[in-house]
Amino acid sequence: MSAAQADPYPGPLPRAGEGASRRLSTFAFLHPIEPAQLQVYLDAFPGVEFLQLDGDALPQGLERAQAGAISWVGPPVDDILAAGRSLQWLHQRGAGIDRIATPALVASDVLLTNGSGNHAINIAEHVLGLMLAFARQFPALLRAQGERRWTPPAAGSLFELSGQTLAVIGAGALGCAVAERAAAFGMRVHGVRRSPASEPPPGFVAMAAMDALDGVLREADHVVITLPLTAETRGLFSTARIAAMKPGAHLYNVGRGAIVDQGALLEALRAGHLAGAGLDVTDPEPLPADSPLWAEPGVVITAHSSGLTPRSYARYQALLLDNLGRFMRGEELLNLVDKRRGY
Ligand code: GLV
Fold it and tell me: Any idea of the CA torsion for 203, 314, 89, 337, to the nearest 10 degrees?
């Protein structure tokens, strides 16, 4: 990454303490929203007009909106930008911006905030659930239950997380939430991130930089990918990197499917180099019905569901309400994304 790309995003809006209030007369929801959810915003900001999608079509009056909320299930971002000529700020509901940070959005002056942290608790619990499922052979037990078979797994196929080593790749809000929970299960947690701080965050015994990734992988019984998809992370888990993993390890991906070379993963599972994989994300999504991953023993696929709970929606709403107030008061927005860096 060049020095120019590493610069913080120079947004046109004033930083905390420097700002004059900003006009927010119209805000557009560019993802589906339930009437009861919309009412919360109407009650909180009675002076603001809130536009909504009309089916899949852009809201009428989008050209008036100074700000909006988007997610990857709404209309294409470039259509939003073309119609929303007054937009100064977009809030992305999820954490990952890979599907929305088009060249037009990156080049524009529109500020982008995201939902980083909103899903940390539920996704971390999901990861722990996958690890426990492998440890206790739940996939095989569920298959047996479906066939009304009483088949206890062989003791040698079961294991304890306690005392095992976990590598968390990407130590943002999500990686930190995984680490704290895994540490409570007695795991030794090593982190790998782009810029390691001097003190590892709670839950981690050590934090390394990306260039130490292979060394960390060699020691880890479990490897969790919580990274965003960027030019640097696409294909990071290549054939060679998967080969660097400890034999018999389990891999979990709650970042983005394209970070892992799925063909290489499949080969490593078939060769017995890896014992299992928990995939909440795949490339593409949905995973096509003819993908061999579906039928691969040792693979658990959870259909990008780890981020879903009513409470994570409530955290999204609280963050957006907070940011709406900040926007109007001319304060720095929470979760401002560096569009060029990609997270
Ligand atoms: C979910 O995948 C997100 O990016 O938050």
Answer: 10
